Structure formats: structure tokens, C-alpha cells
Amino acid sequence: MIKVLVVDDDKLVRKGLISVMPWQDFDMEVIGEANNGAKALEFLDNHEVDLLLTDLEMPVMSGMELMRLVRERHPEVYIAVLTLHQDFEYIQEAIRLGAIDYIAKVQLEKERFEEVLGRIHRRITEQEGRIRKLRMLPGASSPDESFATDQGYALMSAVRDPEPGAAVQWAVRHAERFAELGRQVLFFTLGGGEKGEEGEEGLDELVRLASTDSGWTLIRLTGIQGRMPAEVYDRVRKYGDGEFFYEYDPAVNVMDRSLSVLANSVNPVNDDLTLTVMAQWLAPGWIYRDGLFQANLQELKDLRLPQAELSGRLYVLADRLDQLAGKTGTSRIRLPAPLDSWFQVEAWFDGVRKQLREEWGRAPYSPEVVQSVMTAVSMLHEELDQPVTAADIARRVSMSRSYFSQCFKEIVGTNFNAYLRRIRLDQAKHYLQNTTKTVLWIAQHVGYEDEKYFSRSFREYTGLLPSEYRNQSDQGREMSSGK
């Protein structure tokens, strides 16, 4: 039985979830509830809990802070987060802190309760099964003395929660010392000298098996002689969590590394530099210029962002590129999940580039004209709260006002003013659904100086006044939460 703790500062939300969700159908039992992170942590310190279902925004102690402390004090507890927010910052941070699922309240409807619990139950049971399978393998332990051999081996998987394959089975059968350093990293040494009792042929067999196990790579690691296991394991684990993401190549089955250079080279996040690099992808020059495309890729790779951080940034970029494509796109631009390696990141960018070139190439204009119009579209999204005009934007992209308007309509699919109005009011809908900001604040932040004019435009666009739209959204969330 999976024991569940539900944490939300809204009592009606907690009671609704506890009473309506089909817990028993998925071998789950709610054993406690709390209205803030501090009380939840106190409960966890005194009770055995398998799954923590927590809201993110709460008084006293937020859900994010609760997750950080739970990871330190109760790392065995699985966490799923429940929140109104769908912004990438929240998604990114929740993933970074180990959440196995991210549930948006606005998407949680009664008919989806079984789907949500089924997904959480499946992830928990799959991960537990893989852990048990690995821990039952022979030799899964390691003495505390330093290594006598200078060479060790690591099997690393670019796939999250991989199945132990033939190479793993071979390793634990032949290993002198073996350690599981995470669900994606296994380390071992071989007896009978550096090549083991099987000799060179045995290692050839290991290489062959590693090449057939999807996602697994064999790392031959030198320089471990005289080193304590804790030091070696720490470096291997950090490499698996960081730099391996950028170095993994499905065409390379074996990699040689020295312990002296094997370190976590994923850099601390430099927000200013990261924003600058990401902004380059919103200027469409890379779609047509090979050199700029490769340069942008290299600059992004050189940031060496942690995997969760990179995924969060790309999630937002995909949404922005989808917006920039406008009505010219016949298919949506979406980020596949998960991205397990930089190899997949490059493949995604390449696919997006080909898609945009094909779609924008249908317009009867040169790539330079299409690029200028897409640059203009990017400006509109970046300066949504500013008083922009078609004449001003045309001047900034070096086009005449009349020609710019003609090209904009044919390439984007609607005229300049209609497009600007749509993206402004779509952003207003987002603010009304996901924030408690006043209507005046929202009007000003989507480019309307007059609140009454904004409300009139909003009603023409949606059929509802801003206050009515917000109330309708709130009622939908209440119904989804079981109130």
C-alpha cells in the first residue's frame, strides 16, 4: 500500500482531493494532510510516507522549500506537485527537486482522476521495480579499501530509469567490485588484472553487449588506483548527472576518460548570459544561415546548463517559436519530453529549423523578407506592453510601411493590428487565469493605457469582461479540485 500525505493550504481542496480521488483503486491510502510545508515536514518526521502530494504556493513554508527539505531528510519519499502555475520556472524547479509528476489544477478534472493516479502509481512501481532488480544482482557492494587496480568501468544510460540490459548482467557476473550509483550509472572493476579473467575477449564481449543495449554507454576510467571508493563514485556520479548529457552520442559505444579530468563541468547558471543566448533563437536568422545556426547551438551548449534547467528554457522557447510561426504553420512546434542528451537537443533544433523553413518558404517572398517579418513578430512579443505601431516596426526592420503591411499579412496570415491585438489579449487571458493582478495592472502590461478600452476589447474578443473571465476560470478550478 502506497501511503500518501496531501498538503494544500486550501482546506476545501485537500478535502476534495482526499474524498474524490480513487485512491484504493491504485493501492494508495491517504494517511495524513497538512495546510503548509512546516506541518507536512513535521508529519513526515514522525510517520512513514511513500508519496507526498503538495501544492507549491503556501504560507509558512512553500511547497518548493518543503521539497528541498524532503529531498535532504526523506530522499525515499516520492513527490508529485499540484499547482495553478504552468510557467516553466515552476516546472523546471519541480523537476530539479525530484518531482515525479507535475499536475496543473486547471487541467485536473474529475474524469481525469484515474488517469492522474494511474500515471503516478505506474511511475512509482516502475522505479521501485528497477531498484529492486538492480539491488538483487550479485556483487552489488563494494569494500571500503582503496582500489588496487588503475582501471574501472562505468555503464551509463542516457535513458531515464533504464532497464538493466545484457551489459549490466555481464558486469555484475564478472565484477570484482560493483556499485549502483543511481538508476542510470553503474560502476565496477574486474578481477584477474585489469582485463579480468575473461581477458581481452571478455572485454570485447562487454563492448558488444553495451552497443546492443539501447541508451547505454561503457566508460573506461583510468587513474583510480589508490583512490577511495567514495571519491571515485562521487566523480562518476557527478559526471553521469552532468557532463555525460552533453557528451553522449548513440554512435559511440565506448568512451575513455581519466579520473583526474572526470568532473561535473556543468556550470552554475548565469542568468544574464543565459537570457542573452536564448534570445538569439527568437531572431530568425538562424533558420536560413547555417553558420549562425551552428554558432547558436555551440553557444547554448557551452553554457553547460543542468539538464532540468535546459529543458525548462527549451520548453519556453518552443512555445515562443510556435507563437512566432503564427498561422503560417501547419503543425505545432512542441518540445519532446524527456530530452535525454544534447544529441537529442541538436536533432530537435534541426527539425524545428527544417519545419519553419518549409512553412515560411510557402510565402512568395525571399528568405530575407520572411526573416524581416519574423523579426518584427518577435519584437511584438518582446514589447507587448509598449505602444508599438506598424510604421515603427517597419522602420526598425528596414522596410517601407506599405510593403511591410502587405508582407506581414501574407506571411503571418493576418494583418498587423489584428495580430497584435490577439497576442495582447491572449496574454491578458493568461494573467487572469494564473495571477491575482488587478485588471488595470493587466491592461497596462499588455499595452492598453485605458482600462475601460481594454475591458471593451477583451469582451469583443472573448465574449466576457475580464472579471467575468477570471470568475469563470476560478469556478472551473474549484470544480476540478472537488469543491
Automatic annotation (TrEMBL):
The keyword Iron does not apply. The lineage of its organism: Bacteria, Bacillati, Bacillota, Bacilli, Bacillales. Residues 3-120 form the Response regulatory domain. GO terms for biological process: phosphorelay signal transduction system. The keyword Phosphoprotein applies. SUPFAM superfamilies: CheY-like, Homeodomain-like. It comes from the Bacteria. GO terms for molecular function: DNA-binding transcription factor activity; sequence-specific DNA binding. Keywords: DNA-binding, Phosphoprotein, Transcription, Transcription regulation. Pfam families: HTH_18 (PF12833), Response_reg (PF00072). CDD domains: REC_YesN-like. The modification 4-aspartylphosphate is found at D55. This is Two-component system response regulator YesN. Residues 374-472 form the HTH araC/xylS-type domain.
